[in-house]
Amino acid sequence: MADTPIHDTLRIHSFASTEPGPRLIVLGGVHGNETCGTVGIERAVAELDSGALTLLRGQLTLVPVANPLARRLMQREGERNLNRSFRPSAAPADYEARITNLLCPLLDRHEVLLDLHSFQSAGEAFAMIGPRDNAGMLEPFARAAEEGRLALHIGTPRVVEGWLDIYAAGLAQRAGGAPADDAALAFGWGTNEYMRSRGGYGVTLECGQHADPAAPDVAHAAIHSALRLLGMVAGEAVAPPQPALLRLVSVTDRDDDDDQFVREWATFDPVAKGEPIAVRADGRVLHAERDGFVIFPNTEAQPGAEWFYFAVESDRRL
Q1: Which one is the CATH code of 13-241: 1.10.1530.10, 1.20.1180.10, 3.40.630.10, 3.20.20.80?
Q2: How many helices (H) and strands (E) in the chain?
Q3: Which H/E stretch holds residue 182?
Q4: Which residue(s) pair with 294 in the sheet?
Q5: Which of 47, 189, 250, 282 sees the fewest Cβ atoms within 10 Å?
């Protein structure tokens, strides 16, 4: 944490039609080294400013860089991960908490969120959605159909569900099986979890690998797709074929700098039951417990941090 507060200004572009309609907010640069969302948003802002794109109804807010400090550093985090513990705090203890206090009121004024990201490993773009409708304690939700429809229209070949469930399971795993308390679970909250807690819904779009030259195009196209789906701009919203839907079922932390993958994995690489995935520093081999897919393999993970996720095919349809 910095010894003195870092002062910053968020650049926020807001557009409001005289016709009532949906309220959509689009975030880019929640992580500083993920630039594709920023580029996609800047293109959309230029189109709106020039008149090439017209907002016909509703309200649209675009935030190109949600974490200015992390962007200046061109790294994932400024002082910590902005996409954790994402809720207001009366006494913000770090830079990201102060930024969260600015972003939360923005999200409160909207009902739909599109959060644009990219990832470290190779792999195709995909969308992440929240839980199915439920009245449980972890993440009660009643807008799964709308959220799934948004993910479907974004048009990625894959959609992934199960983030908060697997985050809670990961906490229990680290605690030797003990269930996580509310404060620990709240650390798993990101922008979408906050949006759902406020009665809205949201989709995270992982636009591809950080340096993929096509990733900004994916981000830009997704903004247009969301606006068409919500009837906020002209054009027909055409749903592509059903994507492959996967469910996260486990997360594995890196314990030591000498923990190594058995090969260079890409997100969505399939693995068969029993296939080796990684080797611990002490020589223990980590095998796939069932047929599935490696998600977010991170060769740069620090000890104690998430190293890779594992997903299986889901029976859900959007």
Answers
A1: 3.40.630.10
A2: 8, 14
A3: helix 182-187
A4: 269, 310
A5: 282
Residues of the chain with CATH 3.40.630.10: 13-241
**Per-residue pLDDT for 67 more than 60?**
yes
pLDDT of 1 reads 45
Which amino acid is residue 65, in one-letter code?
A: V
For residue 167, the model assigns a pLDDT of: 79
Asked which of 28-32, 138-142, 168-172, 309-313 is least confident by mean pLDDT, the reply is: 168-172
What span, in angstroms and rounded, lies between the C-alpha atoms of 224 and 74? 27
| Edge-to-edge strands, sheet with 276-279 | 260-261, 276-279, 285-287
Pick the closest to residue 30 from 135, 113, 92, 112 (CA basis).
Answer: 113
Tell me if residue 267 falls in helix, strand or coil. Answer: coil
Percent of the residues in the chain that have a pLDDT greater than 70, as a whole number? 94
For the chain, the first-to-last Cα distance in angstroms comes to 42
pLDDT at 146: 98
Q: Can you give the pLDDT at residue 305? A: 84
Range 248-313: architecture per CATH: Beta Barrel (2.40)
Q: How many percent of the chain have pLDDT more than 90?
A: 84
Long-range contacts at 231-237 (CB < 8 A, ≥ 24 apart): 231/21, 231/22, 231/56, 231/57, 231/58, 232/17, 232/21, 232/22, 232/24, 232/55, 232/56, 232/57, 232/58, 232/60, 233/53, 233/54, 233/55, 233/56, 234/54, 234/56, 237/153
Tokens of 195: 């949006």
Q: Smallest Cα–Cα separation from 261: which of 269, 29, 49? A: 269
State both tokens at 11.
């650049």
pLDDT at residue 179 in the model = 64
